[in-house]
Automatic annotation (TrEMBL):
Function of the molecule: DNA-dependent RNA polymerase which catalyzes the transcription of DNA into RNA using the four ribonucleoside triphosphates as substrates.
Residue ranges with Basic and acidic residues bias: 186-211
Organism of this sequence: Davidia involucrata (Dove tree)
Protein name per the record: DNA-directed RNA polymerase subunit
Domain of life: Eukaryota
């Protein structure tokens, strides 16, 4: 899935003097408060971190309420969905006009009727709502299905995604992963067959030469007839 990255960061965490004896705890608490929130500093949503405190010797910053500046290195796991990225999520609700998805267990996404390709038709089977492909009957989307969809937009404040199932490579992840391999194999077979046919055609054309609209064989064992005018001039 796209939209995830690991970033190495050099940070300075500001700790209140009252926490001077428990600097490590204060740093972890500060970083913990940033989890599952969009950060403009990191340009993404912080999902996890691994911290290496360079030194607990802090620099006192001047001010009315002086803070301690602690330098550290951190490895950050960030979620940063951008338009046209492919994400995966679990369907938690669907209806005739929309499909609702949860991504990574915390970010909600919606795919509206206009962004569901015509191939998928809404049906109710045995009391359950489902979208079924008219091209491939085994390609279904229902509650509990993990789907792959395209990002249209991302609301950084409420962590809400607007998605699309219009592209052909979106839909039920299990079905796509199985059948895209078959399609790829078929495409390769078709390409090889076309190349073979093309080579055969070129070999056939190689045995012929077009001159003044007439086709002459290049086989030297066969005598080419001379035009009547040319024969009469030679006979004379």
């Amino acid at each position: 899935m796209e939209g995830l990255k690991v970033s190495d960061a050099n940070l300075v965490v500001y700790v209140h003097p009252s926490k001077a004896k428990k600097v490590s705890e204060a740093i972890l608490r500060e970083l913990g408060s940033l989890l599952f929130k969009f950060s403009e500093t990191f340009n993404g949503v912080l999902l996890a971190y691994d911290v290496n405190i360079l030194s607990e010797v802090a620099k006192i910053l001047p001010g009315i309420h002086p803070y301690l500046g602690v330098r550290l290195k951190a490895k950050l796991l960030l979620f940063y969905p951008k338009p046209d990225m492919l994400l995966e999520g679990k369907v938690v609700k669907l209806g005739q006009q929309s499909i609702h998805v949860i991504v990574l267990g915390f970010s909600s996404a919606i795919i509206t009727e206009d962004d569901i390709r015509e191939e998928f038709k809404y049906k109710v089977k045995h009391g359950q709502e489902v979208f079924v492909s008219t091209s491939h009957k085994r390609h279904k989307i229902e509650v509990g299905t993990v789907i792959r969809f395209l990002v249209k937009s991302f609301d950084e404040e409420i962590l809400h995604i607007s998605g699309s199932l219009v592209p052909a490579h979106t839909g039920n992840v299990c079905w796509l992963d199985k059948n895209l391999e078959d399609w790829s194999h078929n495409d390769r077979s078709t390409k090889k067959r076309r190349e073979s046919e093309w080579r055969e055609e070129m070999e056939e054309q190689h045995d012929k030469v077009m001159t003044d609209g007439e086709t002459f064989s290049l086989n030297t064992d066969c005598q080419i007839k001379k035009p009547k005018r040319l024969r009469s001039s030679e006979d004379s």
